[in-house]
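Customer escalation, tier 2.

The customer says the design service returned an amino acid string that "doesn't look like it belongs to this structure." They asked us to rerun it and document both sides in this ticket. The original structure tokens are below, unchanged.
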């Protein structure tokens, strides 16, 4: 195990915000939907969505469960969220389109 910083997903916060927006919930309402309102504050959720802090694994698992999106889609910057949230079944995410550079 190295001593350096671990790479963080660049799009994680945006994806968490996108899920909340698709549910049309406030941050406090999202915490209730995730059943985390007794453990986390709106300010903490805001920090996760803005990419200032990285959420604990348990929070990501809750997002995965309520949105029915595999946790891989949140953590992998090469995947985008599906258009429909929540889906009828667990969704693996959508491959991000590669932009060719010249």
């Amino acid at each position: 195990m190295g001593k350096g910083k671990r790479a963080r997903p660049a799009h994680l916060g945006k994806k968490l915000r996108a899920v909340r927006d698709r549910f049309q919930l406030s941050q406090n309402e999202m915490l209730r939907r995730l059943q985390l309102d007794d453990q986390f504050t709106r300010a903490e959720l805001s920090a996760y969505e803005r990419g200032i802090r990285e959420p604990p694994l348990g929070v990501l698992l809750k997002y995965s469960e309520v949105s029915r999106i595999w946790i891989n889609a949140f953590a992998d910057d090469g995947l985008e969220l599906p258009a429909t949230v929540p889906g009828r079944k667990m969704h693996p995410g959508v491959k991000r389109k590669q932009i060719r550079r010249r």
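Tier 2 assessment: The sequence is consistent with the input. The longest strand covers residues 79-80. Helices lie at 12-23, 27-33, 42-49, 57-67, 71-75. Sent an explanation to the customer and offered a walkthrough call.
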